[in-house]
Design goal:
Elements: H1 7-20, H2 26-38, H3 42-47, H4 55-69, H5 74-78, E1 80-83, E2 86-89, H6 101-115, E3 121-125, H7 131-139, E4 144-149, H8 152-164, E5 171-175, E6 189-194, H9 209-212, H10 228-237, E7 241-250, H11 256-263, E8 269-276, E9 282-289
Parallel strand pairs: 3-4, 3-6, 4-5, 6-7
Antiparallel strand pairs: 1-2, 7-9, 8-9
Helix pairs in contact: 1-2, 2-4, 6-7
């Protein structure tokens, strides 16, 4: 009689299988997918290591393994990703939130504290899953955010994430291309944030298959140098910032130097600053609106 597929046996087999397929974190992915199917935490897998799977569970797990072996990201298979210690829903309509974007959130909160407004306003351009907007409002109890995106399915994901974490009443989700529908005569925001597409077109084919084949291309590709959308944001943002308000934009590796060269003489902003990510890469562009403008 064939031995049953227990939790430990499945983890061991899948780890070897993913390893042969070139998956970067084979054991972690095996554990995450099995915990997802069994609706338990990863630590519980080892508390119940000899538990056999039911036929339905085994079928569901095999399908998850098949998808991961085809390089579909674990986050799209499980439908979730942690960001700023918050569990967020993710679907193929949105970019998967990454740890480096937490730098932008932290800097935005620090700048808001410096401004000291009782009920500040933030504009989130290209919100995607709503990760930045949800993290900011979850952390700042009086903050209000307008979050834009051109993708209606992405806005639906952002809405569900806002509702999940109890901040939907302070986030207005608007379908538009960046801030194009706002009147330039209204300078309403203390801080504008964005994690825009910033990968150069020529670099897309060299991305990992998980990114290249599954994440939304319009959330990745930023033109020939990866800077096209960033420059559009810079050109628009000062019109919507209050005096001395801040623009924070996530950027790609090696983009700080060309951005500084182009922006240092921009009269609409008072200086150019960059913040490093956890790897020491200049990851966030900071521009402050010139108070004399």
């Amino acid at each position: 009689m064939e031995e049953p597929w227990t939790i430990l046996k499945l983890i061991q087999w899948t780890t070897q299988y993913f390893g042969r397929k070139g998956i970067a974190q084979p054991r972690t992915d095996a554990e995450v997918l099995l915990a997802h199917v069994l609706k338990m935490e990863r630590i519980q897998l080892y508390l119940h290591y000899d538990q056999p799977l039911q036929p339905r569970e085994l079928t569901e797990y095999r399908e998850a393994v098949r998808r991961r072996a085809a390089r579909e990201p674990v986050q799209y298979i499980t439908g979730r990703q942690e960001f700023w210690s918050l569990e967020l829903e993710v679907t193929p309509a949105v970019l998967i939130p990454r740890p480096e974007t937490e730098i932008l959130v932290a800097k935005a909160l620090a700048l808001l504290d410096q401004r000291g407004a009782a009920a500040p306003w933030v504009l989130d351009l290209g919100t995607g899953s709503g990760a930045i907007a949800v993290a900011l409002t979850h952390e700042h109890p009086t903050l209000r955010v307008i979050a834009t995106d051109v993708c209606m399915p992405a806005l639906a994901v952002a809405r569900r994430n806002a509702e999940r974490h109890g901040v939907a009443d302070r986030i207005q989700l608007v379908a538009m291309d960046l801030g194009s529908a706002f009147s330039p005569a209204r300078a309403s925001f203390d801080v504008i944030v964005s994690n825009p597409p910033y990968i150069a077109s020529s670099e897309i084919p060299g991305l990992a298959a998980e990114i290249r084949n599954f994440e939304p291309r319009n959330a990745l590709e930023g033109g020939s140098q990866g800077l096209a959308v960033i420059y559009r944001i810079v050109d628009q943002a000062y019109q919507h910032l209050r005096p001395s308000g801040s623009l924070l934009v996530e950027i790609g590796q090696d983009q700080a130097a060309p951005l500084k060269e182009q922006l240092v003489a921009n009269r609409h902003y008072d200086g150019v600053e960059f913040f490093d990510d956890y790897a020491g890469i200049q990851r966030v562009l900071h521009l402050r609106r010139n108070p004399g403008e």
